[in-house]
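Researcher: Please translate sequence to structure tokens.
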Amino acid sequence: MIQNSELILNPDGSVYHLNLLPEHIANDIIFVGDQNRVEKITQFFDSIEYSTQKREFKTQTGIYKGKRISVMSTGIGPDNIDIVVNELDALVNIDLKTRQPKEELTSLNIIRIGTSGSLQKDIPVDSFVMSKFGLGLDNMLRSYLIDEVANAAIEDAFINHTNWDIRKGRPYAIACSEKLEKIIESDKIFKGITATAGGFYGPQGRVLRLNIQDSELNSKMDNFSFNDERITNLEMETAAIYGLSALLGHNALSLNAIIANRASGTFSEDPYKAVDELITYTLNKLAQQ
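Model: Translation complete:
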């Protein structure tokens, strides 16, 4: 039996941070970072059956073209992903009354929809990027036994290319779900490696009043390539989502609408349109399954 201190439940039996019971979520779940983006997706739903929020974790479950889908805000960073994915897994793979893992695994389909800036000049604003791999620079996933799901070859190549300071911890590389990749992909979607940082300022190369350990890291990432896969963008969640999902037996995919191109210095003239187009594209692909 999983102890009360390990799996914390609210008085109503819901999981502690997400404030959800098993019946509140669908098997197809869309992640967004900002709680205000949840309704930017569910505005397209035919109906909403459930809505709740606790802290930054807002969830709405409803129907889109006959498909039951949940949309959830995760907040920012790998630490929040650790909470969200573990508690979602508990909802479907642990009996919350007996506190025993279920014998039969339920695999969730998790798709992150976000916005990002491109690191590559040929990936223009208003395009879509699919994260073929998540490259974690954050260390969170190293608390788990990840060797069976990690791609050591990419990790080694990145460490050598960037002259990575191992005192920051070993980066980890995790592939997306092949199942979801096949469902979502199209000729219009760019693919590549998404780097996941553990912070917004220093970990992403931003300098305000503090010097950073490697001021050249961003430029090194810009020209890193492994088997023709480049680092397309830098954010704070994808690798953690991929890693925990792979370990727990779920399918995960991260998609971004490119609203800025750092290499060319351009920004989308209508970023909201690009995001809405990615949302409707993803919803329609899920509804067809």
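Researcher: Any highlights?
Model: The helical segments are 38-42, 78-93, 152-162, 178-184, 217-222, 238-248, 271-287.
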